[in-house]
Amino acid sequence: QVQLEELGGGLAQAGGSLNLSCASSGHGYSSYAMGWFRQALGKEREFVAAIGWTGDNLYYGDSVQGRFTISRDNSKNTAYLQMSRLTPEDTGIYYCAADFTRRYSAASESDQYAYWGQGIQVTVSS
To answer: 28-46 as b/e, with b when 16 or more CB fall inside 10 Å?
Structure first.
């Protein structure tokens, strides 16, 4: 079965950086879109970033534009999220997701993603 595993979360200070990775396995798809979402305590899930198969099409949420960078290594079936200039508002559980219906583009709506990781905690202290 399809599995997505997020790694790299933890604690960072405001202004610092953290890197997340998401490895997908258990599927035979050769090209697909991937996305990152996050959910803060008591808030709705929020779009963070998404990337198409080739890596040419990148999408970012307004709150992370210019601070976060999404990338992928298709040889490893892995997507990455580099987070910099972190603020306490970036605190939450970060989820990666895979959309096997898209190839070159990627969606920002969570309901477009059928497969999700378990999520990983990111905490930014002030």
So the answer is: eeeebbbbbbbeeeeeebb
pLDDT of residue 30: 78
Please give the Cα distance from 57 to 40 (Å, whole number). 26
Residue 12 pLDDT exceeds 90:
yes
Cα separation, 101 vs 113, in Å, equals 9
Give tens-digit pLDDT for 26-57.
888 879 999 999 999 999 999 999 999 999 99
Beta-carbon count within 10 A of 67 CB = 15
Tokens, residue 87:
């603020």
Which residues, 6 or more positions from 34, have their beta carbon under 8 angstroms from its beta carbon?
Answer: 22, 24, 50, 51, 72, 79, 96, 97, 98, 99, 106
Q: What dihedral angle (degrees, nearest 10) is formed by the CA atoms of 80, 72, 68, 92? A: -40
Question: What is d(CA 72, CA 27) in angstroms, rounded to the nearest whole number?
Answer: 17
3-state secondary structure 37-83: EEECCCCCCEEEEEECCCCCCEEECCCCCCCEEEEEEHHHCEEEEEE
